[in-house]
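Quick one, T. Sequence first:
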Amino acid sequence: MKRKTAVKAVLLVVILLAGSWASAQIPQLINYQGYLANGDGNPVTGTRSIEFRIYNTASGGTAIWSETQSVTVLDGVFSVLLGSVNPLSYTLFNGSDRFLALKVGSDSEMTPRTRLVSVGYAFRANQADSLGDNAADDFIEAGSIPDIISSIDGVSNNGGNVDLVEGSNITITPNDAANTITIAAAGGGGGDITAVTAGTGLTGGGNSGDVTLSVAKPLELSSNTISPLIKASYSLSVSHGFISSLGGSPSSTVGGAVYGKEYSIGGNFEGALGYNGGVYGEYSGIGGETHGMLGCSYGAFGIEETSNNYGYLGSTDNGAYGENTTGNYGILGHSDCGVYGKHTGSGNYGYFGSNHYGVYGASSSSYAGRFSGDVKITGTLSKGGGSFMIDHPLDPTNKYLQHSFVESPDMMNVYNGNIILDGNGEAIVSLPDYFEALNRDFRYQLTAIGAPAPNLYIAEEITGNQFTIAGGEPGMKVSWQVTGIRQDVWADENRIQVEVDKVDQERGKYLYPELFGMPETFRVDYYDFKMDKEIQQQVRKEKQKIQEQEKKLSEDYEKPQELKSIRDKQ
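Structure tokens:
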């Protein structure tokens, strides 16, 4: 279709509102009529998709409003209501210049843009928008004027005055000029205070005039007993806490700089700050027992006693480590990879983000990786072999059916089909419209079906995405096959190199050393296999270290008898 050109357009009505579009009497639409002709100047008739755009510049810039309508055009003339698809806002027309542009179908935007202007009565609307010589913002909108207060604290006088009355030792002083009411104390009660003395931890005091007491800085509290300096408890439960108690265990009332304990139906919660680990916390209840520490030999350490699952954050070797009682474990922030995990029972393992691979998986007895869904690869897939596997069509409950991939040293596409020859023993085979854009180096195969056809041949090679078969009998069925080599830009930049020399670190090694009678150490990716072994050795050391940490926690958890008696007394 030739490019269309709007040669005439008339803006019939422009409505500018000085407030909002909420008024039911003011339309929210702009009536727009135009004349549409094709590149030869002939009027257009039919339905066209037209996008209408409003800009704040005569050229360039980005549209501040747009909508697309399916427009009926008759002898070039059309009429639309702008805003019927995408509502217009009065804020679009704030007094600045606005320009309307049209875009018909897939054509480019028409030029020049049409400047939107006012109709005669819109000048009166401009007077309403400014409210005389004042801006609209200088006025309060109806409905937003606050109610006059006619009651105070439930005392009302049906919209009349509510008087303030002076009480004992109170004065009320109104000041109409300053718009204030001052309420002040007029005197004191009976009795005298002759002096205020600062106690321990306080400063200030005095025996005359205004007296001020302040907390001493720094606040220093000291004691020569094992009792805590500060103790708090809740009278309706057994929850309690202490600050700066001495000695002992985090589970005792005398352990840690800050200690707290809460008993509830769901379980007991206990914690201490300033203990050996910096912070210690413990939970014991129906679900089991869990405890952990912050600021110990790890940044954070935790264990669940019932299952014996444990983990830590921030060690000298790893960012995070976790292990299940089955022996399965995982690592975050290892020195060789970002994430590492291993299933101990099967020996399967894998990691993310190493020097060699973004993702690596290994298994000696099962799949190294499995994707249950679609997989997209934007690069080249390299493999030792390939196949599809489906449930066997003839015995789907008991068997699988597998076929190997068809391999080629070229990036080859294959097209085939069957066709019936016409009365002249000829046929034209049509290929996809992208065929010649995608492929080059065409190759052909023809097979006559039902009878020999020694004269069957390609009469015309592929041109215009089709080729011609001739030389057969009228009505004969012919099976054809055409192949082509990809020539798209990606293929041209990523041709498969059929024979490749191994790099230095891979020379003398094999992808499958066992097939050549060689040991595992001759595997190309033995580095990754070796890394797994090294990580396992590190994990064994970590386990020993964690066991020592857990033993220490267990010893600390056992409360000495003398500390128990002290706690009971408190």
